[in-house]
């Protein structure tokens, strides 16, 4: 994915960087709760190696990622390593940690 300037742009173009070969066996709902300026709530359903993006909050997500919009944008743009952000407490994950690792691979973070 080319450099993006907003969270909305991230989710509008999310499927462009999707690597379906990394989504083998994944059937999950990923909730993104992004806080601060330009933040928002989005959820992504990955099923049959295909992503489906929605705005808002899902009733029963498999995994929830919480971060500031600025930090998430920095991760997407390759300016902040996801593992570093997680270890520093800048990104929080609830649910299946294995899915969080797959998330990185599927979307090329």
Detail the topology: elements first, then pairings.
Blueprint: H1 7-12, E1 28-35, E2 40-47, E3 50-55, E4 63-68, H2 69-76, H3 82-87, E5 91-95, H4 97-107
Parallel strand pairs: 1-4
Antiparallel strand pairs: 1-2, 2-3, 4-5
How would you describe this structure to a colleague?
By secondary structure, the chain is an alpha+beta fold. It has 4 helices and 5 strands; from the N terminus they run αββββααβα. It has helices spanning 7-12, 69-76, 82-87, 97-107, and strands at 28-35, 40-47, 50-55, 63-68, 91-95. It starts with 6 loop residues before the first helix and ends with a helix. The mean pLDDT is 92.
What is the averaged pLDDT score?
A: 92
Seen as an oligomer or otherwise, the chain set is single chain
The CATH architecture term is: 2-Layer Sandwich
Radius of gyration: 13 Å
Per CATH, the class reads Alpha Beta
Count helical runs: 4
Largest pleated sheet:
5 strands, mixed
The secondary-structure class comes to alpha+beta
Distance between the termini: 10 Å
Strand order of the largest sheet: 3-2-1-4-5
CATH topology: Nonspecific Lipid-transfer Protein, Chain A
Whole-number count of domains: 1
| Strand runs, count | 5
**Portion of residues in helices?**
25-40%
Q: What general form does the structure show?
A: globular
H and E order? HEEEEHHEH
Within CATH, the superfamily carries the name SCP2 sterol-binding domain
Poorly predicted regions are none
Strand coverage percent: 25-35%
